[in-house]
Amino acid sequence: MYAKWVVYAVGVTGPAGGKIFYDKGSYSAGWRYLEAWTADESGTYQWKTSYTTTGGTSTAIGTGYANTYTAMAGTAHPAAERARNATWGGYSDWFLPSRDELNLMYGQKGVIGGFASVNYWSSSEYDIIPAWIQNFANGGQYYYNKDDDLRVRVVRAF
Hints:
4 helices, 23% strand
């Protein structure tokens, strides 16, 4: 059945095998739900390999895909590259969540499961040197140097 017509509840397993952590209430702009994979990507990754402005990223819900596939395209963004290469559940449209999407994930971390009490990258740039992160021990959102090695958890919209 086409996902556009299936109603999912937050906390249930999505079509790719991850957990639904957000429902915007209606299908628009090509998606309604956000689904998080239930495990971290292996290893840790830099947000960017240099201190230069990426530009074009947003912090808003619904922008993680564009951040990852447009603004952060290329090998200079290892965390985003890892997300773009994820193929969990037979799907290859995974991305690095925006700052606000990552905050939603923190709010549903018990439902999603598998998080360590560490920092995770978002796909949202802060400025020339840092990018936004979420601390999964205390829920705080901070900015860290782009060349720090942090965890990655991928999401997809459908």
